[in-house]
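Listing S7. Sequence submitted for prediction.
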Amino acid sequence: MNNNTDHPLVQLTGVTKQFGHTVAVHPLELTIGAGDFLAILGPSGCGKTTLLNLIAGFMLPDSGSIEIDGLDVTRRGPERRPTNMVFQGYGLFPHMNVRQNVAYGLRLRKMPRAEIDQRVKEIIELVDLKGFEDRNVNQLSGGQMQRVALSRALIMRPKVLLLDEPLAALDLKLRKSMQEELRRIHQSIGGTFVFVTHDQEEAMSLANRIAIMQEGQLIQEGTAREIYDRPKTRFVSTFIGEANLFSGYRKDDEVVLDVGLRFSNAGPDGQVDNVVRPESITISHSSEYIQNDLMVLRGQIDDIIFLGPYINCRITAAKRMVTVLVSSSSLPEGMASGSDVFLTWKSEDNTVIDGK
């Protein structure tokens, strides 16, 4: 997948949106490269759907500008933008069959019948709906209806495909299947997808870039790995994956945590939070073989939760709860609720967040 932000396909500059006294989108900058699969991720009410509607043209910004493929579309409606939207509710015409639904936009453009038939055939095959062309949409499953909605948008060949939580209504198994379909379709056509979701696992599995929103602000943007490994705020650290948070302070480039640990870390003096991911922590019965350069906490196991290939351990250490994630095969033998244990991790697994 291409991530060409030197020549962006979509550029938002200083874009804002307010409803009465409520600020839905604070001033933000966002660049989307041709070929990107960008997930806009955040909790309900954070402004992510408003942002998608601003890109689509269903809403106009109060200030700032929106460019798509070098063209200023800030004041243009959706019909005059090279975008197409797939909604959560599908928006299919119940009185039409699959072929008629998919071809609808092309018929409105009065394209030649032969070209419409060819493009419908191609898109039906792409989304694996061959054999369903003459079926009424009311006879389809949720996943099949989602494919029809995708087909109807993709057949218009938009420069940017916008997806507003299109998988939210599906059950877990079907959602996973449709995630794979979306990934395959994106790779097949090489288009630019912008996907709104509140599901962090969905964002991480689908997108090559993620933009995280909180209370109308774009908090952090980057690859899933960048955001997971180096969250910029306390909110991001807990919204993307699980995190153990330790409060502390930094003075003279040394961080001292409230659990008594200390390590070198360059930065301004002041209060900090330290993030340690659960899978970075090792559990052992004894301190005998622990290296001197490791972070070490002593604790007691409160609970062990079996998750198939992984085990989630809840451990009380230094009067606080610590979560540890280990593979089922690597949990030391004999460990159970009530066991005394030592927790260790490397200093490079610390992520220090300043003053958040």
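Caption to Listing S7: primary sequence and predicted structure tokens for the chain studied. The chain is about 25% helix and 35% strand. The first helix runs from residue 48 to 56.
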